[in-house]
Every structure is written in structure tokens, then in C-alpha cells.
């Protein structure tokens, strides 16, 4: 699922390159999540293989750390195109001809904003909406570690272009469906803590999701409720993808490298956010993962 | 209950006046909420009448729009003191000798920051923590309408003083107790919408609160879940204070003046946020208030 930084950056750069007289095709490997359909250029995105029929000379890849994430668009890497990749993830892949990775940037949108300055294009209001979306979503509304003084200064400049930030934030955060809250309620019923209070988890079974008519997107962000608990070092969220197959998300507040815990179950990720897929019965899986986290906690 | 802007502003100004050689007493009408005990000067606050025994020549009142909110500290208004009041609320009371109200400021903390510039005091790191807390909490992490480009520029300056914003935000937002989430779960079970989808509400009974061992502070912010629903214009939250006595909170996204609805039930507030207290049986009260909101919606 493409996120706000990815889609906002792609739309912002695309619309700005058009101002410079370039012919631009916007593309996403997958349909845009409902949440981001308000972006000014949202209806212009070609989806997946729908973008492959064009005749391009340059392929610009934004906020994408591995080729697999390109989905059907990966085919474009094999054509004889100039490849430009811009990203802010430390583990980002070197796509070839022209790769720019700035891990100090809070969002790819920050790099795009600076690039527009270098190109001498002053962002139009609709571009400012895209860049604000990119930066605000990737910094958790300026709460995360990646937020810098320059992040705030860039956003001040975007606001001075006249964007309605309060309205944008309603579009980004106050568009929940009743189903989102029903799924939250069902997940909260399973909330549990280790006796030491440092590991907490919630889960949602296939049966519950089906009975509510809920999709994967309705479970987005539920792990943040677990993480918000005082004293919890590691938060876990278990979702039954298909009967007997569970995806676990792991979040650490810093003491434990959850990527190493996820690796025990053939998963991966980063120090503070990781995931894995496990087969079997829910209760047993939860016990196993919680035990592994507790053992990592006591080892650290 | 004093909020982050009030306590952050008081602590920031107090600590800075000490740098200028003033003798300062920090005071709050009520004990500091658990949430704000991390503030650098939190343990220095004298509470309520505990602050009345001092011999003062100036009484500085911050982020306080009406004298009633001073609680026991109101007595200081009757002494022969210089009264300085600084606030950003439009409806703020004129406390007398020296009142400064800037409704364009997102938080009283913004005014204090500018005042420190005028006084030639460069904020120390602990003052920056207080000012960040004041500004970030009153703008809903820079999401609300009151956020301006200058808000972001001020925060950039505060961050450049070396404060750990990610850690501060964990202290502000990731300190929930298990009880908070149990109360949320119980409230979500009551979530309901009008057939038109424009009014939504949740409630929590005295019996439920007592059975969970929950206090008023555990219901703080629950109305935001109701407001976050797509299509909802007015969000309501009903809390049974004592058996048969309910407090309703009303939040509007702009179409309805909820202060006028609250006034029908002898309550008050602002256009977008209001409240009232009603006596009677829960279901009947909910029906009455919802009907009044629906009628205001169709009239508007």
C-alpha cells in the first residue's frame, strides 16, 4: 500500500515537472488508498500495469526502498530508461543511474521540496498540499524522531502558500468509518499484558474480521493503541490473514531490536518496527512471539 | 484541570523571570494532572490555597479566561497587587492593571516565547520543553485551525535548543493506562449514529465507570473518536457523573453552533465545543439531545 509520503511526493514532483514543460505520467503499483483520494492529482495516477504501455525516457522512483515494492512497475527497470531514485530510507536499494538517498530527511517529500527550490519551481498551492501530506504523515504530525527544525521551517513555508492545514488534517485523520471503530473495539477486547507490563498485545481473528465485513485497511494503526500504554516497551498486533496464518507486527520503544525478534520467525523490518508471518493456532503463536520478546527484553 | 498550555506557559515564564533575578512562586488552582508531572518545574508548583501565604507584589495570570478558573487563587485579585494577564482566548476577561490578549496566538506559550525575546532572555532547554508542551498540546500537534506558519517557526527554534521532541511526545501521548483503553472499549460498545449519519454519540454509565474503577480523567478525549467518523457533523459524548446526572459534551465540525444547542439544556461553551449537565434516565437524555442537534442541523 503506497503511503502519504510516497503518493504526495510523486504527485508534487510530477505536477512541478509539468510546469517545467515535461510530459509526466503518474503511476502507483496499487490503487490509491481511499484516504489519499483527496490529493490534487489522485485521479491522474495510472495503476499497476496500466502504466506500462507508455513510451518513457525517464523513470523516477520515489520513497521506494526495494524493487519488489514497485509491483508490476518493476518491468520499467528492465527498459533502457534513465532511472532516478529518491528516498530517505537507510536500507534503500541502489536503483542504478541516479540514486539520491538522504536518511536525514524526515520524508521523501522534504527532499522533493528542496529539489523544487534547486529547479527554481515555486510550489503551487496544490503541490503544497501534496508536500504537506507527505511530510505530516511520515512524521506522525511532527511527533516522531525524524522531525527536525528544518521540517517545521519547510512546513511554515508550505502554509504560507495558503493551504488550509486544519481542513487537510480533517481529511487525513477524521475520516474513519464506523467499521474502523468496530474493529478497534473487537481488538481492544483481546488486549493483554505480560506480568511485567513491558510487553502488550492485541489480536484479531479471521472470524471476527469476516463477521464485521472488515478489510486489512481497517486494522491499520491498531498497534499504536498497544504502543501508547505506559510502561510498554514492545507492542504486538496479531492479525489472522487467512485461517491459520497470522501476521504479527512488532513495535519497540527502543530497548529491544524487534527486527531480530522478527527474524526468529523469518520476518524482517527495522530496529523499532518489524513484522513476520506465522502458521498455526492463534493462542500458540501469540505465546511463542511474546516469549521471544520477553527473552530479548531480559537479554538486553 | 490546568492544561499543557497553561502549565507550560507558567513554568516557562517563571523559570525565565528567575534568570532576570526575580523571586518567583509557581501556582496552580488544582494539582497538576499526572500527564504534566514531567514538566521541569512541576514539583515547584504550590497548589490552590497553598500559594496564598506568600507576600507578592505582582500576580501574573496566564491562559486563564475567567476569574472563576483561578479557584482559591482568586483571592490574590483582591490584594493590592499588580495584575498581569496574558491569554489567547477571544472571550478572555480583563483582569485589570495589565491585560494582553492575542487571539492570533495558537497558544499562550507562543506569546510567552515572544515576550522572552522582548525581555532579552534566551530560553534554556528546560524552558524550551515547557514552551514546546504549551504549543504542541494547544494545537493538537499542529493539526488545528490555530496553527500558523509562525507556530512552526517558533517550534523550529525550540528544537534548535536541543530538546528531544520524540521523547516529549512519548511523555505526552504514549502514557495511557490499561484503564484508559478499557474505558474506551466500553464506550465504543455504545457508539451509535443517527440514520442520516451526521450525528454520532457514545456514552458511559456510572455503573460501568465504577465497575472498571475509572475516574473522570479516563474519559478525557473519548469524544474525539466520535468526531473522527467520516460524515459526522456533530459528535456527542455522555458521561454519568453521579447516578441520574449526565454530562454531555458536544463537538461540531462547523455547520452547527453547539453552544446554542447546549444552551437549550442550560449549558454553555463555544461554537465548536460545548457542554451541558442533564438530570434523568440515560436513554431519554440521549434521545433529547440528539433530537435537538438534528433539529439544529436541519434548521442550519
Topology, element by element:
The structure is a homodimer of 300-residue chains.
Chain A: H1 4-19, E1 27-28, E2 46-47, E3 58-62, E4 82-87, E5 98-101, H2 108-119, H3 125-138, H4 149-160, H5 165-173, H6 178-188, E6 192-193, E7 199-204, H7 206-212, H8 222-227, E8 234-242, E9 245-252, H9 258-264, E10 268-269, E11 273-279, H10 282-299
Parallel strand pairs in A: 1-2, 3-4, 4-5, 7-8
Antiparallel strand pairs in A: 6-7, 8-9, 9-11, 10-11
Helix pairs in contact in A: 1-2, 1-3, 2-3, 3-4
Mean pLDDT over the full residue set of chain A: 94
Name the CATH superfamily assignment of the largest domain in chain A: inorganic pyrophosphatase (n-terminal core)
CATH topology of the largest domain in chain A: inorganic pyrophosphatase (n-terminal core)
Task: Profile the largest sheet of chain A.
Answer: 6 strands, mixed
Judged by helices, strands and strand pairing, the structural class of chain A is: alpha/beta
The ordered string of helix (H) and strand (E) elements of chain A is HEEEEEHHHHHEEHHEEHEEH
Which consecutive residue ranges of chain A, at least 5 long each, have pLDDT under 50? none
Strand order of the main beta sheet of chain A, please? 6-7-8-9-11-10
Number of β-strand runs of chain A: 11
How many alpha or pi helices of chain A? 10
Oligomeric status: homodimer
- Identify the CATH architecture of the largest domain in chain A: Alpha-Beta Complex
GO molecular function (chains A, B): nucleic acid binding
Domain DDH (chains A, B): 2-135
Protein name (chains A, B): Bifunctional oligoribonuclease/PAP phosphatase NrnA
Domain DHHA1 (chains A, B): 220-289
